[in-house]
Each structure stands twice: as C-alpha cells, then as structure tokens.
Specification:
The protein is mainly alpha-helical and 130 residues long. Helices cover 62% and strands 9% of the residues. It has eight helices and three strands.
C-alpha cells in the first residue's frame, strides 16, 4: 500500500503534512504487512517499524480503521524523514543511546521507548494531523 493513498483516503491534508516531512514524499513510501516471523521478533506492543522508505506494520494496524492507520503512517513517515536527515547509522546510534539512557535512569522498557526524542516528535506530528 502506498502511504500517500492511505493518508488521502483518511482525509489528511497532504500538502500541509509535506512541510513537516521535508524531503520525504509519501508517494515514495510503501506500507506492507510485516511477516509473521518478523513480528515474532518484536517486543510486546510494537506495531510497526520503518526501514528507510518501507514501513512494516502489524496486520491489526492495517485493519484498525482509517484514522488509526493514518496516525500510524504519519508517525512512521516522520521516522523516514529522520533517517533521511541523520542517515541510518546516526539515527540508530541516537535512538539506542536515548533508549538506554532512559533504562539506566530506571525507566522500564515502555517508558524508555516513549522518552526517545524521535518517538516523541513522531507522536506529536501524527497527533497534529489525525
């Protein structure tokens, strides 16, 4: 599925969103259901992941309704933009550093994940549009 089509069918203002996404064009990002073997590697609560311009999603998210799917896609598009800006290696180093900093400060897995700056930004952008 194409990210731009998903967002358009949910009524998201794509032109406004494009200003948030910078060089990322939703037309060039695809959303696919994650294979079962991939989902088996995910921790509980993980609903998707972004690999460059590919978004892998839990099939439950793909079937959860237009608004929830649009919020998920926008969230992941922000990660695509973050990859583009930082590069994959710098993004992953920053992401893992922030996660482990939270863990060392005593946060549990979920709270450490929620405190990662790139996750905070992705949630905030998605909330503005859906």
């Amino acid at each position: 599925m194409n990210a731009a089509r998903i967002l358009a069918s949910a009524g998201v203002d794509l032109e406004s969103l494009k200003t948030e996404l910078g060089p990322v064009n939703p037309e060039n990002v695809n959303v696919w259901p994650a294979a079962r073997f991939i989902r088996m590697l995910w921790r509980s609560g993980i609903r998707g992941m972004t690999l460059f311009r590919l978004v892998l999603a839990d099939p439950d998210v793909l079937d959860a309704g237009e608004a929830r799917l649009a919020r998920f896609v926008i969230h992941e598009l922000v990660h695509v933009r973050q990859f583009a800006e930082l590069g994959y290696v710098r993004f992953m180093i920053s992401y893992l550093f922030e996660y482990w900093r939270g863990r060392f400060r005593g946060l549990d897995h979920r709270d450490a994940y929620l405190a990662i700056g790139s996750e905070v930004e992705a949630r905030e952008v998605a909330a503005r549009y859906v």
